[in-house]
Each structure stands twice: as C-alpha cells, then as structure tokens.
Amino acid sequence: MADKMENTAKALFNPPSALRKRAEREIKLADDPLVFLPYKANYFLPVSYYSGYQKSAGFRGAEYGPVEAQFQISLKFPIDTGLFTENDALMAAYTQQSYWQLYEQSAPFRETMYEPELIYGVSLNQSLLKELKLEGFTLGINHQSNGQGGDFSRSWNRLFAEVFFASGDWGIAFKRWFRIPEPASEDDNPDIKNYVGISELGMAYTKSSHVLTFRMRNHTDSDFSRGNMQFSWSFPLAGERYKGYLLMRTGYGDTLADYDKYTHRVGLGISINDIL
C-alpha cells in the first residue's frame, strides 16, 4: 500500500518542495484505512464579518447578524492508484462549509454547503521555462448543495478539469468547470454560472511557514463584472499544531443561498492545514 500511496503522492503532489513535504507526511498515514487526509484548507473562524447578512435574512425570513462563525472541513480518501499509468490516482473528496450565527439568539446555522467529489489525477512533472513546471492535471465530477428543500434549495452538478503549475515557492492552478444540465422544472438556480462563473484561477506562495493564497472566479460573458475573489493568509502561532488564518472574500457566490448577491467577507481564526 505504501508503494501505491507513493504513486498517489507523485500523481497529485509532485511539484514544489512544499507540496512534496506535505505528500510525504500523508503517505505515512495512508496505510491506515480509517485515516482521511486533508484536501482543501481546514479552518475555524470564530469571527467572520459578512456584509450580506440582511440579504440572507430576507431569503430565509429570519433575523441574522453581521458577525458569525465560519468553518470548513475538507477531506480526501485514496481509492486506487496506477489505473492507467504509474503516476495516476483516483480519489474521493468531501468539503463542507458552515456559517454559524453563533452570537445571535439560539445560535442557528445560517447555511451549510456540502460538496462531494470524485477526482482522477495524473502527474506530468514537465519542465516548461526555467523553473516553471507543468505538474499535472485532474478531472472530476462535483456536486454542491445546501441540503435544503423547496424554495430554499440550491444545488448544481459539474464536470471539471484542473491543471497545475509550479515554480519555486509558487503554485498556480487553473480550473474550468461545465455544469451538467437539469430539467428546467427541477433547476433551483438556472443562472448560477452567470454569477459564480465557469472558471477559477488560483495562486499560492509559501515562505517561512507563511502561506498566501489568491483565488479568482469569473465568467467572461459578464465582461468580468461578476465572479468572486478570495485572499487568505496562514501564519505561525506560538504552538506548531495550528496556524492563524485570515480570510477575505468579495463578489458573488459567497454562499449558495446568496449566489446572486454581491457581498464582502473578512474572517479571522485558526487553520489546521495549508494547501502548500
């Protein structure tokens, strides 16, 4: 299993030294079938200001405040490796984002988004220009919903392709998705791609235990007037187990309930893992 997991690491985490070190740590845990590995960032932000709280309240007919707690759980599990080449892998992943009105009466959860994925990845590790490398690509299918029914339901299914580049302490990824059509009578949000976008550009930089990330989503048909931008910074704390985490977002699609509302968010808390 360890040899197969080494191939998994090569398939999905082969580029920069920072990703390689993370992969090596994960390989040590991968022989245990009960262990899930981190996928995206896992964090808890006890203080998160959200400018769209009144718009969200109108959606649900509830009273919300501008400050809430926010957390993300994101895990993956290797299914198999070496399916078609020595450096490919099939993985299952699950991400959950929750927005918790912790400081309001009865402390309700304003929204939770559920996102399971099936991912196939291939490592290429090809040099392009000087230190720039084409590290590989992934193909997958993704479902995202808020788990609600009736008028509150928001969901969509997508096929996606993502390509990864690396240069020194930098990591770059470009992702393009294609929505799987639904019957008009069953579509809760027919115009969601017009606001959330059809592609995503992500960049990450790591130095001295600090990790900076930038992500931009957009839809070219909107003349880049819609979409979403996100910035995050994870930084060392006194202990080594957790890191401080600052998250800022602006644009459309902060949550599924408010996908067509332009909002801003800034939150501060701790992260359990970095993407680098």
Termini, distance in Å?
24 Å
- SS strand fraction: over 45%
Largest sheet: 12 strands, antiparallel, barrel
Strands, total number: 13
Provide the succession of SSEs.
HHEEHEEEEEEHEEEEE
State the shape.
Answer: globular
Q: What are the low-pLDDT stretches, counting only 5+ consecutive residues below 50?
A: 13-17
Output the structural class: mainly beta
The CATH architecture name reads Beta Barrel
By CATH reckoning, the class would read Mainly Beta
The overall pLDDT, averaged over residues, is 86
For this structure, the CATH topology is: Outer membrane phospholipase (ompla), Chain C
Kindly report the oligomeric state of this protein.
single chain
CATH superfamily: Phospholipase A1
What would you report as the Rg, rounded to the nearest angstrom? 19 Å
Give the number of helices.
Answer: 4
Count the domains: 1
- Kindly report the spatial arrangement of strands forming the biggest sheet: 2-3-4-5-6-7-8-9-10-11-12-13
Helix content: 10-25%
Set down the secondary structure blueprint.
Layout: H1 2-13, H2 17-30, E1 37-38, E2 43-50, H3 53-60, E3 67-81, E4 88-100, E5 109-129, E6 132-145, E7 155-167, E8 170-179, H4 192-196, E9 199-207, E10 210-218, E11 227-236, E12 243-251, E13 263-271
Antiparallel strand pairs: 1-3, 2-3, 2-13, 3-4, 4-5, 5-6, 6-7, 7-8, 8-9, 9-10, 10-11, 11-12, 12-13
